[in-house]
Amino acid sequence: xxxxxxxxxxxxxxxxxxxxxxxxxxxxxxxxxxxxxxxxxxxxxxxxxxxxxxxxxxxxxxxxxxxxxxxxxxxxxxxxxxxxxxxxxxxxxxxxxxxxxxxxxxxxxxxxxxxxxxxxxxxxxxxxxxxxxxxxxxxxxxxxxxxxxxxxxxxxxxxxxxxxxxxxxxxxxxxxxxxxxxxxxxxxxxxxxxxxxxxxxxxxxxxxxxxxxxxxxxxxxx
Length: 222
What we know:
Elements: H1 2-16, H2 26-46, H3 52-74, H4 76-90, E1 96-97, E2 102-106, E3 114-119, E4 122-128, E5 135-137, H5 139-144, E6 156-160, E7 163-177, E8 180-190, E9 199-200, H6 202-205, E10 210-214, E11 217-221
Parallel strand pairs: 4-9, 5-8
Antiparallel strand pairs: 1-2, 2-11, 3-4, 3-7, 6-7, 7-8, 10-11
């Protein structure tokens, strides 16, 4: 009966010490998590008829786990950086946003940089091309993104890998690449069969504060 009363009392006492302001403080919240885990361990030991030896054994295991969690939490920033780097290697077209106005891309196996971009909320993979004066959409991609090529005016002559082609100027309402968001971006739609992949050209890149290549990493600054 005494054990039961103690089991019921411990959570109440612990909860009485918790300040609701900790919910907005990650460090304090982690302290409470550790406290609750320790209380759970004590209640587990008190609520079971086990020997002192086994209780000490379980206590040692839980303490080791808590120390491991604390150690991992103390290196959370380094672990996040490592995670982002691995993610960039495995998914090079996914922009990695460092939260400080910079987005990075890893070079593809073919040696180029490509990025997953949301065009008016719809995804498309663009090849980063500093040689293209504008953002360029292939006919079929433009159609998939909601631009009807049959309703556009193809009045501009452009050069592509497949020779000269005609293109229609358009304005893209919104483009998002990670934390970089641009509105009212100049672009062109190329006639059918002349381009296979969208190009992220200078009409997008020139509106950034800068971009540079270091090794296999392209960094864009909004």
